[in-house]
Write a structure and sequence with these properties.
The complex is a heterodimer of chains A (324) and B (175).
Chain A lengths: L4 H31 L14 H12 L10 H18 L17 H22 L3 H24 L1 H7 L4 H6 L6 H4 L1 H14 L11 H4 L9 H26 L15 H22 L5 H33 L1
Helix pairs in contact in A: 1-11, 1-12, 2-11, 3-4, 3-11, 4-5, 5-9, 5-13, 6-13, 9-11, 11-12
Chain B lengths: L1 H22 L3 H21 L3 H26 L3 H10 L2 H24 L11 H9 L3 H36 L1
Helix pairs in contact in B: 1-2, 2-3
Classes of the chains: A mainly alpha (324), B mainly alpha (175).
Chain lengths: 324, 175
């Protein structure tokens, strides 16, 4: 059984990830509707959940067209990169004790590597389309993602210092008593912002900003290839939410005062659900910044915050070691 | 045993991808092959017991440096014209000489390597050991590298700065 566990889990993640992303498209629109005082898709089936099936049928049966002016090979390759990279990222997420595909001692770095590879999807999609709006979208995404990757990595150094390991299981174990969201509050804030920027969702969806770049990097995409980009984006949202819960909100542990009396997977998934709702709320509430504002926020605010966080965390840890 | 099979698969992928990266006329296709080659090298690092180096290979080389390469190619946006020029430069008369000479070196290298015995057992090097080595015996190299990076940072800041100041001067002149 224990040898089969990773295989079963991998298949579950593959199917669950795709299904989850499909349901998220509907769930997000309904939730946005609630927060913006309107209905959202509510016609098909109970609460409008049939909209998911309708959207899928539409995307599946749409003509799978490659523009004649596009770089054909790269154009087809680009949407698969983001889905593969994001799916690979789930391999190191500890859903519950023993319920993970691989427990490598570089789990955190593996996650960072996979998110940084997902950049190519947007980049190559924008370039291969051979369309000036798509190219601008791709350029923006390259600068945005390379910048925010820096803060994303730096914001996690505090967590690594406190738990003394890159292994995600060790990081969760280190939060048995106190979650890192208190001591690493600066890291948490930077990681959330960088996470949104990495998954290029509103308010940081400048690579696709529809009012200025039509649809940015996926202007020329339609049908299943477009669906792959969307799937990758929602997988990215779920992956970032899983990582926020794992790194800062105690992973599978129950809330501190309540304790662990429910199954670990329940705590993990309910916390991930809350984080996803928070991301949808951000999308509903915050307008998109201008491109230079995004960049100066990154390099002038977030970089100093993360460096101060690393310095203070290191100083406090050394001081505590000296006291003990 | 399985590790050896994986090693040779990854090594073959790395070699093929590198050769493809050198021979493609289209810069983007070449870069994608180069990224594949770097990923294959990361797998090799992982197999020979250096998981930390493998992760850094993906995060830094494949994930950041190559993105900047693609970024530059996007800015230049050469298209068909660049491909044609590249094809012209890839004439056999240009690369035949260097290829023969480096083949001689390759044969020599293979002969030297085949005479020495490789490490018998694989020991995994943890991130902690890498850190201790970097800030212990190799601290001078780290400092020199950081100075080099700082110089690059100051240089690029200077280039960007001049551009900004000129813009501001023009604005003031206009007022």
């Amino acid at each position: 059984m224990s040898e089969l566990m990773p295989v079963i889990l991998a298949l579950t993640i593959l199917i669950g990830g795709v299904a989850g992303a499909a349901i998220l498209t509907w769930f997000e629109r309904r939730l946005l509707g609630v927060w913006q005082d309107r209905y959202g898709p509510n016609r098909l089936g109970p609460f409008g959940i049939g909209q998911v099936a309708a959207d899928m049928i539409k995307l599946l049966f749409k003509d799978d067209w490659v523009p004649p002016f596009a770089d054909r090979l790269v154009f087809i390759f680009a949407p698969t990169a983001i889905v593969v990279a994001m799916m690979m990222g789930f391999a190191v997420v500890p859903f519950a004790p023993g319920m993970m595909i691989i427990d490598v001692n570089i789990g955190l770095l593996f996650f960072l590597g996979m998110t940084s590879l997902a950049v190519y999807s947007v980049l190559l999609g924008g370039l291969a389309s051979n369309n000036k709006y798509a190219l601008l979208g791709g350029l923006r995404s390259a600068a945005q993602m390379v910048s925010y990757e820096v803060f994303m990595g730096l914001s996690l150094i505090g967590v690594v210092m406190m738990s003394g390991s890159f292994s995600l299981v060790d990081i969760v174990e280190a939060q048995t008593d106190v979650w890192f969201c208190f001591s690493q509050i600066l890291g948490l804030i930077v990681f959330i912002i960088a996470g949104i920027a990495e998954s290029h969702r509103l308010p940081f969806d400048l690579p696709e900003a529809e009012h200025e770049l039509t649809a940015g990097f996926h202007t020329e995409y339609g049908g299943m290839k477009f669906a792959m980009f969307m799937l990758g984006e929602y997988l990215g949202l779920m992956l970032i939410s899983c990582m926020i819960v794992t790194l800062f909100f105690g992973g599978w542990h129950g809330p501190m005062l309540i304790g662990d009396w429910l199954p670990p997977f329940f705590w993990f998934s309910s916390k991930v659900f809350v984080v996803i709702c928070f991301f949808v709320l951000l999308r509903a509430a915050i307008p998109r910044p201008r491109y230079d504002q995004l960049m100066s926020l990154g390099w002038k605010v977030m970089l100093p915050i993360t460096l101060v966080n690393i310095l203070v965390t290191g100083a406090v840890l050394l001081w505590m070691e000296g006291v003990a | 045993m399985l590790e050896i099979v994986f090693f040779y698969i990854a090594a073959t992928v790395a070699l093929v991808a590198t050769v493809m990266a050198m021979t493609r006329a289209n810069a983007i296709h070449a870069l994608i092959y180069l990224i594949v080659s770097l990923l294959a090298v990361a797998v090799i690092f992982f197999l020979i017991g250096a998981p930390f180096a493998a992760a850094l290979e993906i995060v830094i080389y494949a994930g950041a440096i190559m993105v900047l390469f693609v970024f530059v190619i996007m800015m230049l946006n050469l298209g068909e014209k660049g491909d044609k020029q590249e094809r012209q430069w890839l004439q056999p008369s240009i690369w035949a000489g260097p290829a023969v000479l480096s083949a001689v070196l390759l044969i020599e290298l293979v002969m030297v390597i085949s005479q020495t015995n490789g490490p018998v057992s694989v020991t995994a090097v943890s991130a902690k050991e890498v850190g201790l080595a970097l800030f212990g015996p190799y601290v001078l190299a780290v400092e020199i590298a950081s100075m080099l990076l700082l110089a690059g940072l100051v240089g690029s800041f200077h280039l960007g700065r001049r551009y900004l100041e000129r813009d501001n001067l023009e604005k003031q002149g206009g007022q």
